[in-house]
Specification:
The protein is mainly β. The chain has a single domain, classed as outer membrane lipoprotein receptor (LolB), chain A, CATH 2.50.20. It has a 15-stranded mixed β-sheet. A hairpin with a 6-residue loop joins strand 10 and strand 11. The longest helix has 4 residues. The protein is globular and about 45 Å long.
Amino acid sequence: MDAATLALGRRGLILGGLAACLPGMARGASPTALLEDCQFELVRKGTRIGTHTVAFERRGSTLQVSSDVTIAVKLAMVTLYRYRQTGIDQWESGKLVAADCVTDDNGTETSLELRAANGRLEGRSAVGRVRYALGTMMDLCFWNPEVVRQPGLIDSQTGEFGTVAMQDGDLTQIEIGGTIIEANHYSLAANKGRAGEVWYDRACRLQQAVIRTRGEVIEYRRLT
């Protein structure tokens, strides 16, 4: 199981207003609806193994986004694997300008710290000093549908950059909480053999995701 990928956790539609969504999505969607706090359950082989919670808070011109991923894989009463990741992002003018992530991967702790500086996104990570173009997103940013336009994402656990190839979305129907809704479906493939799918509703909110890595299939199902 690739724990970093489990944190699947997301430019210009954050603070500047949402004049239009991605191709195929509804236009004029409400930024207020998009930034509702939300929680997903993580499911592996039909069993719930954890949750991912995302919360939003405006602080003046800054949007703060908090993420909390908690995973426990059990066999009978024995916990075989634990994962916990907390992250706090700061967004200004639709761009990620700061991020602090702490990860406990089954007892191995790592941290990632990023800040906007010198026109770039710079900081330190488990792999040392890192530097990216301002506007680059992390793999925790899938709450933001603009993430599907990114050529690559920063791994929120290691700080490494991975390229991403995204297939254009198509409109389909999915079941969420017993209700059938229309959603825009995107398929993605990243380096290191990872792949997945994401579904956004007409209001551009992430509703569902599937991650495939190292023979594992992890489902994200929206609870709230």
